[in-house]
Amino acid sequence: MAASTLTGTGATPRSGLGTVVWYDPEITLPDADESVDVEAERDRFADAVDTARAELERERDATAERVGEDEAAIFDAHIQFLEDPTIEEAVVASIEEGRPAAHAVDDAFGVHIEQFEGMEGRMAERADDLRDVRDRLLRLLTGGDRVNLADLPEGSVVLAERLTPSDTAQLDPETVAGFATVTGGRTSHAAIFARSLALPAVVGLGEALNDVSEGTEVVVDGDAGELLVGPDEAEREAARAEEGADVVEESVETSDGREIEVAANVGRPAELEPAAARGADGVGLYRTEFLFLDRQSPPDEDEQYETVRDALDTFPDGRVVVRTLDIGGDKQIPYLDLPEEENPFLGERGIRRSLDPDAELFRTQLRALLRAAADGAGELNVMFPLVATVEELEAAIEAVDDAAADLADRGVDHERPSLGVMVETPSAVFMADEFARRVDFLSIGTNDLTQYVMAADRENERVGDLHDPTHPGVVRAIGRTVEQAHANDAWVGMCGEMAGNPDVTELLVGLGLDELSMSAVTVPDVKVAVSETEYSAARERADSARRVATRSELHETIQ
Amino acid sequence: MSEERTVEIVPEAGLHARPAALFVEAVNDHEAEVEAGPPEGDLVPAQSMIAVTSLGVGEGDELRLVADGPEAEAVLDELERILTTPEDELEA
């Protein structure tokens, strides 16, 4: 029996086991008596509103992609609260009386928050919305950083007074084991988001939750609506067993028999087992950067060999696509001399570095990969990132051949893996036929491809709207790539966020993709979506989708 | 010219979250001053999300809309569409 059990309302019929991390986004208001420059405070307020609006639009789009359109709609409501003329007038009037902007905002929202708080049901939820919008503005006005919920240690259980939709949308179901809050009900936004993300959650646990200290082990039992503090072995075991509920273990095909491989994107070795447990047929993108980051010297060949072999052993009947080192000017690595570039995303990154400044590192990595291909259980595929030219591809293939020759000379067991190109640049789309002739597969990385096709930085909120893989420009690029790959006997996969969105599964299957690879949490959903798709109908729809002119027409076509 | 209309609310959420956001957005997109309120009662400015949600209008309730301006008729048409479409069929 657990040392103690708290009772609340379960949000998801799932359990999670993990370690408590308290989330307390405290905002400190400046001294109210400070004399202020009215003009400057008015500008600061206007700037904060602009930035908040851009953030909300971006979060709305990200949530629509990750969770769903319905859940994203709450951000539209927040935008309207942000722009409410009643609030704006009250804030400006208060600033003109000499109040600092942060206090003026706090006061103006406070009146309405209290008003809504006294009411029931949906009206009370509006108080939460107003609080969320107010805190966003206060954070911008007081220069406070947001606690980074997107970057919590693996196995964290987040405890908080309450979680706003923006907070919840940041939680990564792959690392976070669940959350529990003091306030909130089954229909609160946090609970709705939790269900959409299949994240174990219990809400409305009351003040008693405040006594659970940081670092304690807990089980979030979303089914029973309980938080078990200090669970015993049986309870821990039960929580672990329940994590893989609606998993489809076998490979899936469309209703008319076209098999689609559903694989997982993996960024660290610790994610391999959970991906297999969620029913992934293989790994569609194994990022190898973790091997190189956060250390003082590069990993040696043996360390890399063992890591890749472990991945192959985790998927004995599947395929593991390993991407060679993809590092660019925007990350700092002490032992690499990365240049400071004006446009790091258009600079020396991916295969460009592997062919020249990091050629030695590349050779070591390839030797490790070839050895693992011979010894690991699963089938190794090696893919090169950010290829833009045939010359780059040929140089990369030559490096593979050199590594093989080198290992042969030394009498070391090795095997030449299948090779592939990651299609991320517009050039790669146009040259897809030439690439496909030279390799075994192509894999479309929609995040970067969208960024380069639309010329829209995905970190830039002002152009967030353009960073959407369902723009016709991107859809046509995908369609063309698949067509050229198939015409040249290469299989083609997708390993961007788009692949994990069950709402576009029919489109992607219709466009002819052979494999979809995504964050492990959405593998079960996409497997279901594939089996509900009829390939022949999907193909016709995808053909229409390739001919439309606007994003809204595209959305209509694929609905 | 001032135009007026009374509409029965269809979305399950009434005038909350998504329907309310679309409602206020539509008001802001048109050249017209719009006020809204219960059939017999005080009207509130329809471009204020706070005022609109405070009305507490739910599914099946009636809402009186008064619009004034060159696009009065058009805005009322659009608002009626939003108020009479089930939420899952609503499009921005």
From TrEMBL, chain A:
The keyword Nucleotide-binding does not apply. It is found in: Cytoplasm. Its EC number is 2.7.3.9. Its cofactor is Mg(2+). Residues 7-126 form the Phosphotransferase system enzyme I N-terminal domain. Keywords: Cytoplasm, Kinase, Magnesium, Metal-binding, Phosphotransferase system, Sugar transport, Transferase, Transport. Residues 243-534 form the PEP-utilising enzyme C-terminal domain. It catalyses: L-histidyl-[protein] + phosphoenolpyruvate = N(pros)-phospho-L-histidyl-[protein] + pyruvate. One of its GO terms (cellular component) is cytoplasm. Phosphoenolpyruvate binds at R287, R323, N447, D448, R458. It is an enzyme of class 2 (transferase). Its main location: cytoplasm. It comes from the Archaea. Residues 152-225 form the PEP-utilising enzyme mobile domain. Belongs to the PEP-utilizing enzyme family. This is Phosphoenolpyruvate-protein phosphotransferase.
TrEMBL record, chain B:
One of its GO terms (biological process) is phosphoenolpyruvate-dependent sugar phosphotransferase system. CDD domains: PTS-HPr_like. Keywords: Cytoplasm, Phosphotransferase system. It comes from the Archaea. It is found in: Cytoplasm. One of its GO terms (cellular component) is cytoplasm. Its main location: cytoplasm. Residues 2-90 form the HPr domain. Pfam families: PTS-HPr. NCBIfam families: PTS_HPr_family. This is HPr family phosphocarrier protein.
